[in-house]
Amino acid sequence: MALRVAYRSSPGGNDKPRPPWFGKDLALRSLLRAAERLAEPPVITFYNDGELPPAEVEVMAAHGTERPVHGGSNRASFRAVVAAEAAVAGGPDDLVWFAEDDYLYSPESLTALVRAAAELPDADFFAMYGSAALAPARGRRRPVRRDRPGAEGDPTARPAGGVLWYRGYATTSTFGVRAPVLRADARLLRTYPYSGGAWDTATCLAYQGYRPFGLRRLLPGDGAPLRRALPRAAIRAVLDVRALRRTANRRVLVASDPELVWHMEVLDGTTRSAPSAATTAVDRARVAAETVAWAAGRGLPIGAGGSRVGA
């Protein structure tokens, strides 16, 4: 099984609340640290949307292939990278990991991902961030969340790579997918970003065969004027219908407990479900500090190219 990593990066910033140790250079080195533990090195392609600090581009060039994309937005760059990776003539057992540039990786994350792909053959998509769990038996076409996060109280959760894997509800645009599934579902993955709002969640629900919106969520809740809200509602209505996949085409998303990668932002408790007890026990600041030490020992100092707060 070959692992391909599609690392999507940009120089832009935003006003997300971040932990004091945040940096995009830290995120990159944490991924490289996790990749070092794999028995077979992954093939990493760095998709850079914009001009990055030269020192960081040098690090990327030393560990993979740097490829510019001209997206200009999160949606556009995501669509471009999905199309590029779906076109790769890889093997039938290949696994593709799509990575955003502001996540912190535990050192065992990619190893656990590969183990899960090998030991859970019915899984199609893989998440290592997020604790929202799916209750598949309770909803035929409308998704239902379990009332407990992660694998807590889930007798169907399965071990692989030193962690438990459970049926995930949704994740972000940082996720894994089997290469044949990526090629089959590339159009779906590239279409749902047009739904607006939390389109990553909508995408996850759609490929699992669930209607992501329903009548109550067709109109965006962001106070947009009708001239923009009505076309968006029409798009969502069409996408709801497209999500009604035949049983044979409904995908399975599994997620790790504890989380093995973390979006480096400070959450207010309302943006996603509460983490599981196993995830809460992870000392992320310690993982960050250990990553800094690892990077320094390999001549990859953090801060040399400038920490860049971004999407």
Explain this structure.
The two termini are 31 Å apart. The protein has a single domain, classed as Spore Coat Polysaccharide Biosynthesis Protein SpsA, Chain A (Alpha-Beta Complex), CATH 3.90.550. The strands form two sheets. A nine-stranded mixed β-sheet has the order 3-2-1-4-9-6-10-8-7, sandwiched between helices. The C terminus is likely disordered. It has 311 residues and is α/β, with parallel strands linked by helices.
Question: What keyword list fits this structure?
Answer:
alpha/beta; nine-stranded mixed sheet; 33% helix; 311 residues; two-stranded antiparallel ribbon; Spore Coat Polysaccharide Biosynthesis Protein SpsA, Chain A
Read across the widest sheet, the strand sequence of neighbours is: 3-2-1-4-9-6-10-8-7
The count of helical stretches stands at: 9
Mean pLDDT: 88
Give the CATH level 1 class. Alpha Beta
Low-pLDDT residue intervals, each spanning 5 or more residues:
304-311
- The topology string of helices and strands comes to EHEHEHEEHEEEEHHHEEHH
Structural class: alpha/beta
Number of domains: 1
Draw up the topology in text:
Layout: E1 3-9, H1 24-36, E2 43-48, H2 54-63, E3 65-68, H3 74-86, E4 95-100, E5 103-105, H4 109-119, E6 125-127, E7 158-160, E8 163-167, E9 175-178, H5 179-191, H6 199-207, H7 226-242, E10 253-257, E11 261-263, H8 277-280, H9 284-297
Parallel strand pairs: 1-2, 1-4, 2-3, 6-10
Antiparallel strand pairs: 4-9, 5-11, 6-9, 7-8, 8-10
Précis, in short:
This protein is of the alpha/beta class and 311 residues long. Helices cover 33% and strands 16% of the residues. Helix 2 links the parallel strand 2 and strand 3.
